[in-house]
């Protein structure tokens, strides 16, 4: 048996042996990742591999394919021409079989897929977007979701995912806010580790595991003006404390792949940032996995960042900086051989990258089994258990922002006739978020569906009118909406935004797949990748519609379905009940109805501070103490603070106590608090731990999240919640850019959200 095919040998030995057998063409081939949906044709129920793909295999091979099963406007894959769960697995197997049987060395292909909130393929379960997942504050439930996503993806032959997204949001005008967990690095770090553990499982070569790719490394959520891929102005201390923190936690959890961000930091594009890719990631953190670019990132070096003379120079710079594979593969495929032959690139640099790619393939067990399982795919993908999980996640992440006079929950018998009004009331794709495959209507429960299902008499007690679109100035739907509201006893208005991509070429970047703002092509999309805004107000005439319905004097509940915060002071001041549902996924309508009618007690808590107006930005809770108290027109406090969320029951906190009032560096102590459900309903509470460093050598945030627990309490039940505090919770990055715990006073705070806590002081001493 050939040594590299002998699974009894160490992976490093197998990779080294295979590398020694490879030609230049085969080595370069391992570093490129063409678009997977372009490798085959699907017609009349039959998949045929394209000759261009076959030629690439025989001339040197392909290291990876991106989005073989991706379905959306960019790929042109629809419900009509796309592959079912079984067909997808069979197509991947056909691709792999050709690669293994028709290449000289039989090297299998990495199949990379998008799985941020479900596998982005036909029939894949669509979970809520990460912004809602973070709002659950339920790490264990999210880990279970990641296991389910990995199982669905691997069943079809997918082996790598380009998730989780670990960007720290600093300006929610940014269109990709929905893809992130929130504004706090500690919380993101907890979800980051859970993502890696869930996606990769106990063994990468398991039939239900895929390799996680951490993105976007790094600072992507802190771009200038909230503009996608804009410059980032941040020092190394802040990078290490905030934006790099979640990545470090994920690397420690065993992440196998990382994707650098499009942006530059202090003048250096992340794609060629050797200080981050080599010094921090590999040397300091010990990362030994693969680094893959974002789509078109190398092109940007020569045409955007302008730090490279041409494509050849860009490709050489990227490989030297630590890039191992190029998504799209165009620049590496076109220039690397020339760079080697002309001496602009040395073979050892190429070998290093190839070695990392091969190591990942061996870890995934692809040389033993590169294939999907069509029968398992058909049985598992979109199964009932995953649907139930999607509904539970959505329900736990919905945040009750306001509930004046206890309008919610609605009583089935007393609610009377309900008018369900708004552009997001019955628009299935608007509640799914970006990076979502096309869905049949039967697979997505809208809010209208959910409410109809809750009431005896169903449609006879529910009136529906969209009223308006997300965007645009048309008020032609107002009359019907107002008529429905006038006839109803209660009005539920489902407003917000849309990340639903359309199929018009005018609004899709055909090179990267990102949406583009266009003056000529119309759609309702006002959020998502490439859709950044100057405002956080409701788009179009939505506010006018709310105001017109409100004037009728009926009880109104506003439900926001959206991918970034809404700042509408009039709604906050005049509407008695407000739910923030973000993009809740395929079961979102059922989950929202569960909350509206009290079958689920809301337990979602904000992971973003919601501003009163866009003029307050940035408004994240953990800013520096020196940032000022107010503007001329307004203070700097958010409308709804970080960690905030209401419940249908009430919780009280008392008897906060420290196990000791002083510790030495290197020691640990505990803080405990009693939490009691003082209401008459079972409920879940998120107990949050915050710490303030009273005096420090360098300026520090006013307060920082350092722990949280989500607990369930019956009426009258009391539970003691305890957190452990030590160096990990007390340290910061010092003047030498190393972690340090400085002696002095620390304020320990525990409570419901960042502005509602009990506190006690802890003295940290240098030595006993």
Protein described:
With 768 residues, this protein is an alpha/beta fold. It folds into 3 domains: 3-379, Alpha-Beta Barrel (TIM Barrel); 398-616, Rossmann fold (3-Layer(aba) Sandwich); 651-765, Immunoglobulin-like, CATH 2.60.40. The protein contains 21 helices and 28 strands. The chain has a 6-stranded parallel β-sheet. Strand 16 (490-496), helix 18 (542-550) and strand 17 (556-561) form a beta-alpha-beta unit. The protein is globular and about 75 Å long. The termini are far apart. The model has no long low-confidence stretch (mean pLDDT 95).
Structure described in brief:
The chain is α/β, with parallel strands linked by helices and 768 residues long. Helices cover 29% and strands 18% of the residues. It folds into three domains: 3-379, TIM Barrel (Alpha-Beta Barrel); 398-616, Glycoside hydrolase family 3 C-terminal domain (Rossmann fold, 3-Layer(aba) Sandwich); 651-765, Sandwich (Immunoglobulin-like), CATH 2.60.40.10.
